[in-house]
Amino acid sequence: MDHNKRSAVSTVPDAAPIRVGFIGLNWNKGWALKTHRPAISQLSSQFLITALYDEDQEAVVTTIQKLRLVHATAFTSLEAFSSFKNIDMIVVSIRASKQYEVLMSILKHSATNLSLKYLFIEWAFGSNLQQAQEIYDATAQRRLQTIVALQGRKSPYIQRAKELIHENYIGEINSVEIAGNACWFGYERSRKFAPGMFEMGNGLDLVTTTFGHTIDLLQYITESYFSKINALIFNNIPNQTLVDDLGNPMGRTVPKSVPDHLLFHGSLQRGNIPVACSIKGGKPTKKFTKNFVIDIHGTRGDIKLEGDAGFAEMSNLVLYYNGIRANDHPAAGEKLSSEQGKEFMEVYHLRNYDAVHGNIFRLYQSIADFHFNTRKIPNLPSHFIMQGFEFEGFPTLMDGLILRKLIDSVYRSSSLGSTLDVTNTLQFAFM
To answer: What are the GO MF terms of this UniProt record (predicted)?
Structure first.
């Protein structure tokens, strides 16, 4: 049986749902409310929120009441929350700059909590590589099953592109070109954004987020890490014009130290494939071109992924495939029929797919599939270190740590002005 296929929709289990303790869920704002909460609600037979933490007593109680989390206990102490026995999985959906302190506290105070089995963390799980490494080491010591929100891997378009390549529909890959837009880091800044998003060292910048998610998807699709990289990073917009909610200038500028442009070149380990990538900050526009494009060129076909924004992990995409079907080649000694060898084109687009919600939903689905083993996969482990390039499963902190090391190398390459050999990134990640 080939398990390297897309995850099926989870069936309703007979067992009790996974009990979730949540950090970062607020009743009237935030990413967790927009994505995690709907996913859990739609999978109510598989997940149940049983605990909620917020240092603000009024905020946590109000959220429980407003969202009608009737099974949830309120906590204002991380120690009490982490040691709560009625939790199977903790979800931490807060900014990267705050993650390290919170996660290290959770891992410390949950040491004797045998009920806790899963830890689900937003990308980038820390402000820098050192924090990410320490978080990973601590979770590995606790033997928790980790999940990191590189949810773009669950996009149906990414899965379809991966299938086409995996099943040899485009032959050997010749080259890859990527272009993306990171709108937050251009000439204007909305007043609703926190200043920390635009300061280096907080783990939320063009390279770590926009490039990070995108390049993770490319490695996942092509089933290869990088061997050599070269990067140039620019901050040519040190000050941004502050605008109101309608986009009108407010008459003042604010500083920005994070990059607004990245030029990246590299070669994939598998096949020594050249990759060229350009990520720019600025207001997206559809007038001239799409704001997100991945072109994958093969010996027998091409794949193009397009989107309206540079955030592939939460954008609805369109996939174009042009080539020759894998089974259209005659066997040795057979003649080519009139239908075989003809060029084939596919346009794949789910008109009603909501990627913001859908990719996170599918990520939770895969956790449920793993926990309840609804597809009865033989020899399924009770714990796994990384997803790697498998269709099944979900990205873990090891997958995230490997990506973090690549991002660190991108910054080093730009700083040193040289090409770096990153072949041993995977090896060092396990050390």
So the answer is: nucleotide binding
Residue pointed to by tokens 């992924």:
305
- Contact indicator for 153, 387 with CB cutoff of 8 Å: yes
Measured between alpha carbons, how far is 358 from 267 in angstroms, rounded to an integer? 31
Cα(77)–Cα(286) distance, integer angstroms: 48
pTM to 2 decimal places:
0.90
What strands, in cross-sheet order, belong to the sheet with 188-190?
A: 188-190, 239-243, 249-255
Across 10-19, 44-53, 251-260, least confident range: 10-19
Transcribe 220-241 into DSSP letters. HHHT--EEEEEEEEE---SEEE
- Ramachandran assignment for 282, one of left (phi > 0), alpha (psi -120 to 50 degrees), beta (any other): left
Question: Taking Cα atoms as reference points, which of 111, 315, 128 lies closest to residue 205?
Answer: 128
> For residue 259, what are its two tokens?
């990059």
User: Residue 139 and residue 174: Cα distance in Å, rounded?
Assistant: 39
- Distance between CA atoms of residues 80 and 106, nearest Å: 10
Q: Which amino acid is at 284?
A: P
pLDDT at residue number 6: 41
The residue with tokens 């000439």 is: 187
278, 422, 428 from 416: Cα distances, Å: 19, 14, 21
Q: What's the residue count for the chain?
A: 431
Beta bridge partners of 298: 173
CA distance 276 to 200: 25
Nearest 5°: CA angle at 18, between 15 and 21?
A: 155
pLDDT value of position 290: 82
Query: CA-CA distance, 209 to 123, in Å (whole number)?
Result: 8
Domains and CATH numbers, the chain: 1-148+353-395 (3.40.50.720), 156-351+397-416 (3.30.360.10)
- How would you classify the pairing of strands 188-190 and 239-243? parallel
**Integer-rounded Cα radius of gyration of the chain:** 22
Joined tokens for residue 219: 């490695």
User: Cα–Cα distance between 81 and 19 in angstroms, integer?
Assistant: 13
Strands 292-298 and 301-307: antiparallel
Q: What is the pLDDT of residues 136-177, one digit of tens each?
A: 999 999 999 999 999 999 999 999 999 999 999 999 999 999
Asked if residue 223 has pLDDT above 50, the reply is yes
pLDDT per position as a tens digit, 178-221:
999 988 899 999 998 988 889 998 988 999 999 999 999 999 99
